[in-house]
């Protein structure tokens, strides 16, 4: 038996490859299938099943393309209704793969079809559980993503999750390995660990949601407290996973086309394409195409694309570092942004050589910022971090304006003011700066290295507030507003 975790850091997502006696299973695969196909061919094994723990909301799974290419059967647990062929396993059903067995445990709560796949070794001993979003290390899946208006509430789902954990998961032995679908950085939970696997016994001791003396009422209250609104693309990705999607190979062929500056500009004008610049914040600040948006590929790229580009069918053209265009198209497709129409050949240098206009954003060091702040030259300081980050520690006098909510809060900003913007390390602040500039707010100064740089530089008054862990999102928003 071979068990391999295939972890993708930018999505904080874990897919899994399990092999036994010439047969294999892949669990929760990513959109691109080639790495899995190469793996199967190199090992000389046949893919028998593709297990899906639930309808994923934070990425588009590769199950459809993978099934078409390998002939493998797509397996969901009970209550999964799709527009394509699947095998809907019963609760408690066992599926054989080589010498090992997978037992399907239906665990509704995160979503109604959520299921855990329990791996038993050749001797029939429980070895590992592939827990999807039912159980994470340090947390459990949020119960507000599968709400049905007038039918199922987040409190209902939390109650189902309580029962699923107590009846199906917690009775398992302490030495069972937990392989979750996500780790820290995912928006599918509130308190996920940086570790990507662990033992169930450890979770019984340390995971707040698995406390043995916890009542259902306490569980529902704690699991639903402080849930920020889910990113807007979550529901769209879940629907794609349920209803189907176009071939990734076709998307890559269309999206990874080199465009001259003239053709690039033509597509922007005729197709109303969004210009997505995926270079580093420093490179973008120095020179970029006017009205382009910076979301760097070397950061949490896909989640921020999904959170900020509200139309999942938006035509997109790409500005990328040399050799990175296919990677950008792939990462966009992972979260359902399939309408990429090409990339600027030879990048910003080609744009400059063609004589076309470029723009800049002023970007200063933490030391420069400290000098201006202390001399009273800063009109308004915007902290682009999340409310909880802001409350934990921030510059005294700063205003919290989370990047997550920029589309909703744009109207509160003035084109007549100069805004200094920082985040935690410099990634989010440049995203925000680029969006503001593209929308006509020209007086922007980006603070490099973010709050980390400001804090390390010193010479500026900082403040902090200990945020209660059980606050609702509404209470948190009110508190941030009062502190700002």
TrEMBL record:
Alphabetical UniProt keywords: Metal-binding
Taxonomy, superkingdom: Bacteria
Domain Rhodanese: from-to ranges: 269-360, 381-463
One Pfam assignment: Rhodanese
First and last residue of the signal peptide: none
InterPro entries according to UniProt: Metallo-B-lactamas, Mito_Persulfide_Diox, POD-like_MBL-fold, Rhodanese-like_dom, Rhodanese-like_dom_sf, RibonucZ/Hydroxyglut_hydro
GO MF term set: metal ion binding; sulfur dioxygenase activity
Biological process, per Gene Ontology: glutathione metabolic process; hydrogen sulfide metabolic process
Xref: PROSITE patterns: RHODANESE_3 (PS50206)
Protein name, entry field: MBL fold metallo-hydrolase
């Amino acid at each position: 038996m071979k068990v391999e975790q295939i972890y993708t850091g930018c999505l904080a997502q874990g897919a899994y490859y399990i092999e036994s006696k010439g047969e294999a299973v892949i669990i929760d695969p990513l959109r691109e299938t080639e790495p899995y196909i190469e793996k199967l061919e190199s090992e000389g094994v046949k893919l028998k099943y593709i297990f899906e723990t639930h309808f994923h909301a934070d990425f588009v799974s590769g199950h459809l393309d993978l099934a078409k290419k390998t002939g493998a059967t797509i397996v969901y647990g009970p209550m999964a209704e799709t527009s394509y062929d699947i095998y809907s396993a019963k609760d408690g059903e066992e599926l054989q793969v080589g010498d090992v067995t997978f037992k399907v445990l239906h665990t509704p709560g995160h979503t109604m079809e959520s299921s855990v796949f329990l791996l038993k070794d050749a001797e029939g001993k429980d070895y590992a559980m592939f827990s999807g979003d039912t159980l994470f290390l340090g947390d459990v899946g949020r119960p507000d993503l599968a709400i049905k208006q007038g039918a199922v509430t987040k409190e209902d789902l939390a109650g189902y999750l309580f029962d699923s954990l107590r009846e199906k998961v917690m009775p398992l032995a302490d030495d069972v390995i937990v392989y979750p679908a996500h780790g820290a950085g995912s928006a599918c939970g509130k308190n996920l660990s940086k570790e990507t696997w662990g033992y169930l016994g450890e979770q019984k001791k340390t995971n707040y949601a698995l406390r043995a003396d916890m009542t259902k009422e306490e569980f529902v209250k704690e699991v639903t407290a402080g849930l920020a609104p889910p990113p807007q693309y979550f529901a769209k990705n879940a629907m794609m996973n349920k209803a189907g999607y176009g071939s990734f190979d076709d998307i890559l062929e269309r999206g990874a086309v080199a465009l001259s500056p003239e053709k690039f500009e033509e597509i922007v004008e005729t197709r109303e394409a969004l210009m997505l610049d995926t270079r580093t914040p420093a490179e973008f600040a120095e020179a970029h195409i006017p009205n382009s948006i910076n979301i760097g590929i070397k950061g949490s790229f896909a989640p921020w694309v999904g959170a900020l580009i509200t139309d999942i069918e938006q035509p997109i053209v790409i500005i990328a570092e040399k050799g990175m265009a296919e990677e950008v198209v792939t990462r966009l497709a992972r979260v359902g942004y399939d309408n990429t129409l090409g990339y600027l050949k030879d990048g910003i240098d080609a744009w400059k050589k063609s004589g076309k206009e470029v723009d800049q954003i002023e970007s200063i060091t933490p030391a420069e910022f400290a000098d201006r702040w202390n001399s009273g030259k800063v009109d308004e300081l915007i902290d682009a971090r999340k409310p909880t980050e802001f409350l934990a520690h921030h510059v005294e006098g700063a205003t919290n304006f989370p990047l997550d909510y920029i589309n909703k809060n744009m109207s509160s900003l003035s084109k007549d003011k100069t805004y200094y913007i920082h985040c935690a390390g410099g990634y989010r602040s440049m995203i925000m700066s680029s969006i503001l500039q593209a929308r006509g707010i020209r007086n922007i100064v980006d603070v490099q290295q973010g709050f980390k740089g400001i804090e390390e530089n010193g010479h500026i008054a900082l403040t902090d507030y200990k945020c209660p862990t059980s606050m609702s999102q509404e209470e948190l928003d009110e508190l941030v507003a009062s502190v700002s």
